[in-house]
């Protein structure tokens, strides 16, 4: 009898989370049916989660003060606070480096090295480098999209193929960058170091990128010259600087703070002013407001789910689905379970960072049960969230490039070959590398 009651309580503890997903997804689908641009981004996620939090308070059946303490304990967890602080510093670096002209510099620097016969693989690499440096796929697409459109029109390359190439490169960097909010969310929810996740992630992403480049070389048409704008190498250095520091294994706060100062110093050489520097730091903080608030709210909501037994219940259900594979290898089954979990979450939410935050605690439980390392579970969370986000027709990336190129978002998402290759590569590595994960 007690087991039955506990099972009901575990199911009920998940209801607030399902409410959030249903509200966010439902409003997005309705607005998309009405023809609203960026339909899934009209209802801010921090607002959509408020009814879910209220429901969690009601279902907790505690005194209001006890429920508030439960929520604050989850929202104020050290992992959540650390993640939020990293978001702020990452936003500040992106804003300062972008304001100094670093984005234009790194794009034109890349174009200056691309032979006309390798335009598609070259633009893939530029998008990958810019996204890895900036930590945002949307920022990369916004910067490179117009340039890619001009190249497509000038050379006659299929617009859908060009758009898919840009999405592919952008998702490569979004997945790997140490200042990407997906990386921050994945590492903090799984409890591993960024450098460890980066190295683990690279073992899967690099082979996929090589295969993508080979495919794009084959698909590139007859060579056409492309005009390259002027750029200052000094403005490229901040991106290289933080990447080197991160790979060296320095503390992420030191890496990002140093990167902000270094980007400003490089900007001062080309007329960047101290007053603008201060304002750009705050602008970077403001750009992270939504994900900052959502992370805290999800943290508080997750504490209710954890106390109610919801995480254990979900983990058992996923393990039940993968039990056929588990007969042969438990680690493979739980890794595939993590992939399915985060992809299902992203399918509903259409935001890879939010899907990682939602799925993170459950993925950690699966990883612990399957004796999977934190760096591997963080890597899988980020990889499969980015795989689905890059191939989602109603995702922001496909919508933005579809609007930029004047084509259907479906054409964009189905041409993002890297995302499909990454998924296949990751599944093969999961199956083949059964030990020491």
Find the structural class using helix and strand composition: mainly alpha
Q: What's the mean pLDDT score? A: 80
The SSE order reads HHHHHHHHHHHHHHHHHHHHHHH
Distance between the termini: 39 Å
Basic shape: globular
Total individual domains: 1
Largest beta-sheet characterization:
none
Helix share bin: over 70%
The value of Rg in angstroms is 22 Å
Q: What is the count of helical runs?
A: 23
Strand content: under 5%
Q: How many β-strand runs?
A: 0
Low-pLDDT segments: none
Main location: membrane
Keywords: Antiport, Cell membrane, Membrane, Transmembrane, Transmembrane helix, Transport
Membrane topology: Multi-pass membrane protein
Domain Na+/H+ antiporter NhaC-like C-terminal: 12-218, 237-431
Q: Main attributes?
A:
437 residues
Written account of the structure:
The mean pLDDT is 80. This protein starts with a helix and ends in a 5-residue tail after the last helix. It has one domain (2-432). It has 437 residues and is mainly α. It contains 23 helices and no strands.
Brief overview:
The protein is mainly α and 437 residues long. Helices cover 79% and strands 0% of the residues. It is found in: Cell membrane.
Question: Helices and strands in order, then pairings?
Answer:
Elements: H1 2-33, H2 45-48, H3 50-60, H4 64-75, H5 78-99, H6 102-111, H7 119-134, H8 137-155, H9 159-176, H10 181-190, H11 194-219, H12 237-248, H13 252-268, H14 274-287, H15 289-308, H16 310-321, H17 323-326, H18 330-349, H19 352-369, H20 374-390, H21 396-405, H22 409-414, H23 417-432
Helix pairs in contact: 1-3, 1-15, 1-16, 3-15, 4-15, 5-10, 5-13, 5-14, 5-15, 6-7, 7-8, 7-9, 7-11, 7-12, 8-9, 8-21, 9-11, 9-20, 9-21, 10-19, 10-20, 11-20, 11-23, 12-13, 15-19, 16-19, 18-19, 18-20, 19-20, 20-23
Pfam families: Na_H_antiporter (PF03553)
Domain Na+/H+ antiporter NhaC-like C-terminal: 12-218, 237-431
Subcellular location: Cell membrane
